[in-house]
Amino acid sequence: MKDAVYGMHKRLLKNFLSLQKGKDMGRILAIDYGQKRTGLAVSDELKLIATALGTVPTMEVMPYLKHYISENSVECFVVGEPKQMDNSPSQSARFIEPFVKQLMKAFPGTRLERMDERFTSLIASRAILESGLKKMARRDKSLVDTVSATLILQSFMESERIKKEQKNS
Fold it and tell me: pLDDT of 57-95, one tens digit each?
């Protein structure tokens, strides 16, 4: 436990120092794109904590993102990539690909990454169930989308952290 806390503080210090040099100032914004609703989550500037932004009706997601980015520095989008167990694209991928192209066109200077989202809805549903929310609150499907986006973002940040550690060792 003590080593884990030490490691976390060491990463915080490294991130703080890189911020002081003017590097990596933007946030990461995760998108769990759906046909009806789109879940959104964002990192802090140090890219340590994923925070839910909520859900937006899919028809309103681009105007929402344009407004959000006009007020916040976002350096990277992470869009959930739905896959089958055999690693092939799921049926919902055909709805997401046009959105990804639209996103790249609308924000050409912003990095875009994809993240496997295979089990995020299941994990989100279980987390909500175990959270102790009342039955009516658990029925809110937008909550699953929001938690899923947060899980996608947290997974992406963790994978980036591991890549950096492997590169530096």
Answer: 999 999 999 999 999 999 999 999 877 677 676 677 788
Tokens at 15, concatenated = 């991130």
Instruction: Name the nearest CA neighbour of 32 among 122, 151, 156, 161.
Output: 151
Are 39 and 149 in contact, with CB atoms under 8 Å apart? Answer: yes
**CATH 3.10.50.40 matches 24-168:** no
pTM of the predicted model as reported, rounded to 2 decimal places: 0.74
Tokens of 168: 């530096």
Residue 116 has pLDDT above 90, yes or no: no
How many C-beta atoms lie closer than 10 Å to residue 11's C-beta?
16
Q: Which residues on adjacent β-strands are paired with residue 76?
A: 28, 111
Domain boundaries, the chain: 24-168
Structure tokens at 58: 């899919």
Q: What is the pLDDT of residues 86-101, one digit of tens each?
A: 767 667 778 899 999 9
